[in-house]
TrEMBL record, chains A, B:
One of its GO terms (molecular function) is aspartate 1-decarboxylase activity. This is Probable L-tyrosine/L-aspartate decarboxylase. GO terms for biological process: carboxylic acid metabolic process; coenzyme A biosynthetic process; methanofuran biosynthetic process. The lineage of its organism: Archaea, Methanobacteriati, Methanobacteriota, Methanomada group, Methanococci. It is an enzyme of class 4 (lyase). It comes from the Archaea. Its EC number is 4.1.1.11, 4.1.1.25.
Amino acid sequence: MEEKKVLEELRRYRERDLKYEEGRILGSMCTKPHPISRKVLEMFLETNLGDPGLFPGTKGLEEEVIKMIGEMLHNRNPFGYIISGGTEANITALRVVKKMARERGKREVNILIPESAHFSFEKAREMMDLKYEKIPLDKRYTMDVKYLRDYIEDKGKDVDGIVAIAGSTELGTVDNIPEISKVAREYNIYIHVDGAFGGFVIPFLEERYRLEGYNYNFDFSLDNVFSITVDPHKMGLAPIPAGGILFRDISFKRYLEVEAPYLTETSQATLVGTRPGFGVAATWAIMKLLGPEGYREIVSQCMENTYYLVRRMKEYSFESVIDPVLNIVAIRDENPLDTSLKLRKMGWYLSTCRCVEALRVVMMPHITREHIDKFIEALARCKKR
Amino acid sequence: MEEKKVLEELRRYRERDLKYEEGRILGSMCTKPHPISRKVLEMFLETNLGDPGLFPGTKGLEEEVIKMIGEMLHNRNPFGYIISGGTEANITALRVVKKMARERGKREVNILIPESAHFSFEKAREMMDLKYEKIPLDKRYTMDVKYLRDYIEDKGKDVDGIVAIAGSTELGTVDNIPEISKVAREYNIYIHVDGAFGGFVIPFLEERYRLEGYNYNFDFSLDNVFSITVDPHKMGLAPIPAGGILFRDISFKRYLEVEAPYLTETSQATLVGTRPGFGVAATWAIMKLLGPEGYREIVSQCMENTYYLVRRMKEYSFESVIDPVLNIVAIRDENPLDTSLKLRKMGWYLSTCRCVEALRVVMMPHITREHIDKFIEALARCKKR
């Protein structure tokens, strides 16, 4: 087939996709990447961080990105990688937890994980035969720390790791990680924080958007937080694939290393081998370009739109399940699956919660007030209010 | 930082990387992506196949790509995905083998795997607690089928899977998969073929490049070959990330599915969640543009260059470990690590074998005869011949 025809046909396929700027993607944690991404891609398309000796420049950028994200998370000496996404990041952290448990002579690896955890943890559990104890949620839909403490006091020595969430997929809640950290320190338990979504939100969340009585701290400043998932390709505005896994320091590397005889380096610690460098370079570019101030503006805009949606919902007597903690709104609905399918037929794509009967809207930067107005009218029509 | 400055700095980093067109990358299985990739990227940068309901056009392309690759591998009804690369693909296949074994009530999952297997299988083993029996190599450096058969005759019921290689990382050898298939059928054992490299070479390898007495067949035409790893981002000329995993049919999907409550679909079978669509679209474009004839030309050119290198080696009394099976040359060397480091100082990047004392050159499409001439002179200087 000729190039011209190939590109024409591709365009036809592409036209069938939704576009972020149309504002109809309301349930995704991804968004339109920052415009500089295209220029960066042009430069870095060929790079392969699976063999970093061939691409020392790009590898240097990855080290700087990890350092920058580390600083954002109060860690000046992090170790980590920019990888395919949150799933690989969470699996990577649990690979470490498993290996550490094995070195302590344990066969069974016991992990405490909140009911609100993302389904990537289910993939990890199944592959690695981890044993999960699901910790119920309290009335704020965050991990019940009292339950957690009681459980650990009961079986302290048997617990190898705790997963805590900073920005849950369903409701955007942040577990009380400062309190979890206290228990973990007392019993010497590893904490992995899944901040895939919240990692690029919470550090830039101004005081006026923080709920009273809510402790948003989730990062390496807390004892026993040894790894954090934080995805540039979610609220960091980077193109896919740019997920992030950070460990407290380089000492965790050895649990991940596998001998890599054919490369310019002798071992490989990432799960995926060959991996593109452009997500790394784009993340570097976007972080340098925006700076903390730029991210603060984006997060503030998303929070304002979040509140705007909640206000508009009230006009139509729709109820938000919780006061939004981050830029996610859960709309109470007696039959969310049915409603979401009806909305989809009307051209609005959002998804549903599991932990509560609700629709969810992730207020990503591509969603404007005009989109919100149109959506709320569609929802009202759909529910005949 | 200003955009102009950001791009300038990025350019400085990028200059430190090696470039494929300089011909000094001799040990990588990746290459300069086909030029159409940039135009495709421009169009598909924003797509996310982790949530295919939002991107039905791009998802349609993935289905077509899997069908096209399936046809190339003699399978008109394949099931599969374009994913991050060979590591994810191999892990995905072994997830299925493990799940099937568990459903048969087995706790321990026993897999026969040749000594020549890529280190991604080591990651899979460690994560999934698989039990490997390493099958030694015969004098052709392929899996010793007699050993394999004897082993299975001994412990038939205990073997849950066989991994076979079509294009080994070190020497480019192809296991005798037709013979392995016979044993596997007899004992009803799952075969996974790692054709990450060979998958886009063997189907386009003209008769005149095929070694006598060597059976190159490796695909779904053979009984019990239930999955194949085949990477467009290696000899398929696609940009990273574009790895491929194909299963014989859709019936294997259920072993991989995990409930995915927040997406437009209700389950997810890939290991990685969020994943870019542009590797898929680029693979589609390149396959349509080149067609089998285009790939045949590329493979032929790589084979001619492979033979050319072997001829030039002989002039300097360097010995090839085997007659090249595919476009990989192993150069016998009494101290390959030392030689490779010396060569690296001279600006030539190649790697070493484990199974034999040798340097290895992967004759990718970016390597020209001029590069080969310069390299062989450098090698001669390095070894003072």
